[in-house]
Structure formats: structure tokens, C-alpha cells
Specification:
The complex is a heterotrimer of chains A (200), B (206) and C (170). Chain A has 200 residues and is mostly helical. Chain A has one domain. Chain A has nine helices and two strands. The longest helix of chain A has 27 residues. Chain B has a single domain, classed as 3-Layer(aba) Sandwich (Oxidized Rhodanese, domain 1), CATH 3.40.250. Chain B contains nine helices and five strands. In chain B, helix 7 links the parallel strand 4 and strand 5. The longest helix of chain B is centred in the C-terminal third of the chain and has 21 residues. Chain C is globular and about 50 Å long. Chain C is built from nine helices and no strands. In chain C, 70% of the residues lie in helices and 0% in strands. The two termini of chain C are 28 Å apart. Classes of the chains: A mainly alpha (200), B alpha/beta (206), C mainly alpha (170). Chains A and C meet through helix 1, helix 2, helix 3, helix 4 and strand 1 of A and helix 1, helix 2, helix 4, helix 5 and helix 6 of C.
Chain lengths: 200, 206, 170
């Protein structure tokens, strides 16, 4: 297996940073192409009027997921060498809920706020300032929150296939089915709730 | 907006990929990860070694979290081995199929007559992600230090005498199960040394 | 330049997914954003009060030791996101100063709530060890359990809050 290339090929830090920049360009490009630089468009997701967030997110997830599953099965990538998010159940859920509040109130998330900044959306810098402030507060409070922060540690590299005891392909199939159903539902909700001027 | 035809193609592609995924094998091949820096650290900290006295204590205490593996030939194993060890000659141990079946929840303690081959096997096991240790000095050190503890000289402190008694008790406990007979021929492999002649000790203490 | 229509969300999603896959394939990791921002915060803190950063184990992780906290993969990736956004916006005629908001509030009110929303999100992102890109997209694609849980919590939290802040948007 010759990928992840940076690890197997022992890339220098400089090369990794350059590639990070290039990958970021692709990320930012498609975020903006999908309209994610616009905070109102993003927020309308939560009123069922514009389901772009759901559609883009899940299309991206199943695309990359399918890629990983097939590449791994062909021996084109060694998943053991790929970093995987750890599972801290309670802080994960709590943090997610708080992020949800921030998303609904602020209309952005960090990545999309950067894209907003890139296209001169004037609310983006305010949101970003808020993010920096919120993170600063977290850093200061962390010593007191530490116990909660590290609680519910279910595993460093816990995956759905492991927990469900099936192969990644089975989980992948299920996720694709759920996504397709979700897309069908999203189209339905959009037709029902959106106003004409909001469809672009 | 993409045309209806495009969406239908997309849905079809997604479903086909999903169905193919179902049939893919769970894990492809083996992956061996060689991390020189990590290995170097373990070696310099001597975290790759296990002293014979410690292994003896594990066996006496009936610790369950380890498995000793004898990497010498089957004949040498028959002639005498560490209690509880299993025989897995080096060539057989270093097969991917064997490595895959090593117990994942135990620390593997590797030993040969000396230390070289066990140390080499240790590198391979670590690359395969197995938790492993090398018995310091191998079977030779085991025979010398554990099975035949040196008697204290005249005028030794009570402390030394006590330790000797304990060591002798341990030796008796372990020596009886699989001590190497004094007449065993030295192995032809490099790294093998002589085997110290076994002296029977009287059981002392409780 | 007249503003072009947005790309279909499905095509944008595929593009994003391929960028994410490329990230895994080449760099052995997925995308992210909040980590870079935390490092920006720590970079400032380190310049102003280095002892404080050293004393706090959490902050120390991001402080980069003897180097700058900004010497990090995510920071360069985020700069790329900025560049990609500019490029896409430029070719689509969407680079123009405006504030996204609902019709019922003023621009300044929107700015205030943007700060508030950002603060919640920033705090939550560190608590969950990642934001939508790092957790939902990356962790989602790699099928990490904690990431799927966080992703569902984000949607739940947002939908539950949306009703109460509807004046901001609709």
C-alpha cells in the first residue's frame, strides 16, 4: 500500500504544508460554489427552506467514504495509517449541541465563515471574532471542565463497523441508503417550505 | 439545477457502488508499520527487555497477562523449556498467518538460547503491532539466574540469605517443571551459549 | 459581473468529497478548521502571556513548543480555503460586500448575533474536539463513532434553537 502518501513517502513538513494549502483551495472552492459563503442561505437549512447544507454535507461524506472503502479494499490506502477522530461521548454530544446553537444563531461554521470572509461578507469577520472569543473562553475554563472533557472515552479509533461488528462496506451501503432517503426527503421539504426567491 | 436525467444517473451510481461495497472483504492484507524512532526509544530505555527474575515472578504469581514463546527448535523445546511457554520456532513465528493469530490481549515474551534471535523477532512483532518483550539473556540467563541462584557466601546478611531462600524456592518450583538437563547439547545457532549444569537445591522456607 | 447561480449542491458535494478523499489519500488525514483557529488564539496568548499558556495543559498542546503554534497543517489548509473561496467567488461574481440576514432585523443586530453565534460555536467546537469540517465531514466519511454522534448533536442543537431565533433569518 503506498498511501497515505505523506506517511508512506515520509514527506517533509514543508511539502505537507504546501499540499495542505492546495487541498484547502479545493475545499474552499467547492464550499463557495455551493453557496456556503452566504450565512442566510446556510441558516435557512434549519427552517427547511434550503436544504443545501444537508445535501452538500452528505454527498461529500458518501463520496469520500466510498472512496476510502474501495481504496482500502483494493489495498490502495492503509487505513491504519490514516488519522481517525477519537470518541469522547459526553463532550462530543455537549459540544455538538452547543455548536448547533452557534450555527443557528450565527449562521456560519468556521469553514464557511472563512469562505464568507473570502467573498467579503461583512458578517463573517464578526462571526470569526466570536469564534476566537469562544475558544479563548474554553481554553481558560478547560482546567475546570477537564473531567467532563475526557469522560466517556469509548476509544481512540472507534468506528461504526467495529461497534456494529460488520465490514465497512456494509456500513457504507447503509449510509448511502440513508443519504439517498435523506436527499429525497430534502427535496420534498424544500418544495414544501421554500419561497420562490430563495431558490437559486 | 442538474437535469432529472443527471439525478437519476447519480442515484443509480450511488446504489450500485453501495451494493458492490456490501460484498467487499472486511480487511485487506496485513500492514506492518516500521517506526524507527519509537523502536529506538524503547531499546535505549530497555523497555524491550524482561529480566529472568521478573518473568519467574510472573509465573510464580500466576499472572495471566503474558505468554512466553520459545523460538528455538522443537527438539530444544522438548529438552527443556520455561514453564507455560509454547513452542514457535522462529521461522514459523514470523509468518503473517501466525502473527495474525497471536493473542491480542497478552504481552508476548520471546526467548531463545541467547538474545539475538529473540531481539530480531521482537522488531518484527513490534512492526506488526504486537505487544512484545525479549527475555534478557534468554534461556541461558534463565538457567543461570533463576534455576540456579548463587548461594550466598559465608557472613552474608540476613537480607541476602532471605533473598536466596526465596530464589531457591522459586527455582525449585520452576526447575521441577522443565529444567534443562546438564547433558543437553548446545544449539548450533549463533547467539546460543552453553547451558549451566543444573544443581538440585533443597526446598527451603515455607 | 452578474452573479452566477450556485453550483448544484450535489455537484458541490461531490467536489467537496473528492477534496476530502484527496486529503486522506495524500496527507493521511481529513479536513478541519477550528483547530487552526484555536492555534491563532494560542499564538496571541503565547505572545502576550507565555507563562499562562505553559501553565495550562490544554493550551500547551496547541502552543507548538519552541515553534509558532501556527506552524501546523490545518493553518495552511485554512489559508487554502480562503484562497479557494476567493477564486470561486471571483469567477462567479459573488465577491461583494453584504451581510446575510433576515428581513426583520438590522445589519447591526445581525453583526451582534454573529459574534454571539460565533462564541457559542467556538466553545462547542473545542468541547467536541472539532467543527463541522473536522468532525462531521471528516469523521463522517471515516465512520468514526464519536464524530457521527457529534454531527447529529449539531443538527439537533441547530434545529432546536432555530425556532427561537427565527426573527434573525425569516
Amino acid at each position: 500500500m503506498n498511501a497515505p502518501i505523506a506517511i508512506v513517502g515520509n514527506w517533509s513538513e514543508g511539502l505537507s504544508f504546501v499540499v495542505a494549502f492546495l487541498i484547502g483551495i479545493g475545499f474552499g472552492f467547492f464550499l463557495e460554489q455551493g453557496g456556503f459563503g452566504n450565512s442566510r442561505k446556510l441558516a435557512l437549512q434549519f427552517y427547511f427552506r434550503d436544504m443545501t447544507v444537508f445535501k452538500v454535507m452528505f454527498t461529500a461524506i458518501i463520496t469520500a467514504m466510498a472512496g476510502l472503502i474501495f481504496f482500502s479494499a483494493f489495498g490502495w490506502i492503509d487505513m491504519d495509517l490514516v488519522s481517525l477522530n477519537p470518541t469522547y461521548a459526553w463532550s462530543g454530544i455537549a459540544g455538538g449541541l452547543v455548536m448547533g446553537v452557534g450555527f443557528a444563531v450565527g449562521g456560519y461554521c468556521p469553514g464557511t465563515a472563512i469562505v464568507g470572509l473570502a467573498t467579503l461578507k461583512t458578517d463573517a469577520p464578526f462571526y470569526l471574532a466570536g469564534i476566537l472569543g469562544g475558544m479563548f473562553v474554553f481554553g481558560e475554563l478547560e482546567p475546570w471542565l477537564h473531567g467532563f472533557f475526557v469522560s466517556g472515552f469509548w476509544g481512540d479509533r472507534l468506528t461504526l463497523p467495529q461497534v456494529l461488528g460488520v465490514s465497512a462496506g456494509v456500513v457504507g451501503f447503509a449510509v448511502i441508503c440513508v443519504a439517498l432517503l435523506g436527499f429525497w426527503g430534502a427535496e420534498f421539504l424544500e418544495k414544501k417550505f421554500s419561497r420562490p426567491e430563495e431558490i437559486k | 439545477m442538474i437535469t432529472l436525467k443527471g439525478k437519476q444517473i447519480g442515484i443509480l451510481v450511488a446504489l450500485v457502488l453501495g451494493l458492490v461495497m456490501l460484498g467487499l472483504p472486511a480487511r485487506p492484507g496485513e500492514s506492518y508499520r516500521f517506526q524507527p524512532a519509537e523502536l529506538g526509544r524503547l531499546i535505549t530505555e530497555r523497555a524491550d527487555q524482561l529480566a529472568p527474575a521478573d518473568l519467574a515472578q510472573w509465573i510464580v504469581d500466576q499472572q495471566a497477562g503474558f505468554q512466553a514463546i520459545d523460538i528455538r527448535s522443537a527438539e530444544e523445546f522438548q529438552a527443556g523449556h520455561i514453564p507455560g511457554a509454547v513452542s514457535l520456532p522462529l521461522a514459523e513465528l514470523l509468518q503473517p498467518s501466525t502473527l495474525r493469530t497471536l493473542p491480542a490481549d497478552k504481552t508476548i515474551v520471546l526467548y531463545g538460547n541467547g538474545q539475538s534471535h529473540a531481539a530480531q523477532a521482537w522488531l518484527v512483532l513490534k512492526a506488526a503491532g504486537v505487544d512484545a518483550l525479549v527475555l534478557e539473556g534468554g534461556m541461558n540467563a534463565w538457567s543461570r539466574d533463576v534455576l540456579n541462584p548463587r548461594a550466598p557466601q559465608a557472613g552474608a546478611s540476613d537480607d541476602e540469605i532471605l533473598r536466596y531462600n526465596q530464589a531457591a524456592a522459586t527455582a525449585g518450583f520452576l526447575g521441577g517443571a522443565g529444567a534443562a538437563p546438564a547433558a543437553a547439547a548446545p544449539a548450533a545457532r549463533p547467539g546460543a551459549g552453553f547451558k549451566a549444569p543444573l544443581k538440585k537445591k533443597k526446598m527451603k522456607g515455607c | 459581473m452578474k452573479q452566477k447561480n450556485y453550483l448544484s449542491p450535489y455537484l458541490a458535494g461531490i467536489g467537496l468529497g473528492l477534496a476530502l478523499l484527496a486529503s486522506f489519500y495524500f496527507a493521511g488525514r481529513g479536513l478541519g478548521a477550528s483547530g487552526a483557529m484555536m492555534r491563532a488564539v494560542v499564538a496571541v496568548e503565547k505572545a502576550v502571556a507565555p507563562a499562562h499558556v505553559q501553565a495550562n495543559d490544554y493550551l500547551k498542546e496547541y502552543s507548538g513548543g519552541t515553534r509558532s503554534p501556527l506552524s501546523d497543517w490545518l493553518v495552511f489548509e485554512i489559508l487554502g480555503v480562503l484562497a479557494g473561496g476567493i477564486i470561486s467567488g471571483a469567477i462567479s461574481g459573488r465577491v461583494r460586500p453584504e451581510t446575510g440576514k433576515g428581513p426583520r432585523i438590522s445589519v447591526r443586530q445581525r453583526w451582534l448575533f454573529a459574534v454571539v453565534g460565533g462564541a457559542f460555536f467556538g466553545f462547542g467546537a473545542r468541547l467536541a474536539r472539532g467543527c463541522t469540517s473536522g468532525v462531521a465531514l471528516t469523521g463522517g466519511a471515516s465512520l468514526a463513532v464519536g464524530s457521527w454522534m457529534t454531527m447529529m448533536a449539531i443538527f439537533a442543537g441547530a434545529y432546536m434553537t432555530a425556532y427561537f431565533v427565527r426573527r434573525l433569518w425569516i
